[in-house]
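User: Okay, second chain of the day. Same drill as before: sequence in, structure tokens out.
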Amino acid sequence: MAIVGPGAAPTPTSALGPTAPLVDRTPEDDRRPTKWTVGRILLTVVLVGFAALFLYPLVWLIAASLKPASQVFDNSLVPETWRWGNYVQVWDELPLLSWMFNSVSIALIAAAAVSVSSSLVAFGFAYFRFPGRNILFGLVLGTMMLPGSVTMIPTYLIWKETGLLGTWVPLFGVNLFGSAFYIFLQRQFYLGLPRELFEAARIDGASYWQLFWRIAMPLSIPSFIIVFLFEFQAAWNNFQGALIYLNGESVEDFTAPLGIAYAMTKYSPSAGGQGDYQYVMVASLLVTLPMLLLFSFGQRYFIEGVATQGRKG
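Assistant: Same drill. Structure tokens below.
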């Protein structure tokens, strides 16, 4: 027994030393871990269910790309007859390599153009103080309210007058002037940068371009990559623009979305095709891979940029 003072309760001891005093547990304490475990199980089941729901189209596409023409639409996730040769024959059936090269080139140019131009405009709105700045920024945001169907015909007529129809330029030319949404996104990021950094650089003799290129840009890489990824994805999937400005040109000049639509028509029995839709499934799967790789590469920057914007809000 440990020696205790007068009026003090003795502390239980054991061969290994003093032991902690016993604490009475209530029925609520006994039930709490059970409730927490049940909640986690239910949450896991829900998340797995949604994951399976979103993955089902991709799994179906992979299965369909490995089937013969007669079994493509049987909705079986396990092919009855495996046709690995589809991935070899598709290159002879369709100019898929040309389509992917065209799409990658256009998407890279479009994403780079809108990222740089939007960043420049956003830095101007964030750094410079001039009369009417808020009104002008409101007008820029007001352009987001115009539906694309309203500006489609005027934009087409402009490109027609320039004689650039049938080229890649209309698919990325508008990105040279920035995008209202990306300007807003980048401006919010620049507003969170300490202004003292720019003022100190100005005192040291830095030009406005150096303020942007050597201070603002290195600190805004996450938001810049977010803009680049968003625009790359939009340009990669731009079927409408390719249909308007490239339709009627050589099949090899098509982008991937327009080429897949052409393949659907080519193999359609109503258009004289043989129903070889397995090649369309292979092409669709191969066209999806670059986007998966790109977002996997930029996931860290994407999460970092979103988290930073959330902290500023």
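The chain has two domains: 30-84, 87-312.

User: Thanks, on to the next one.
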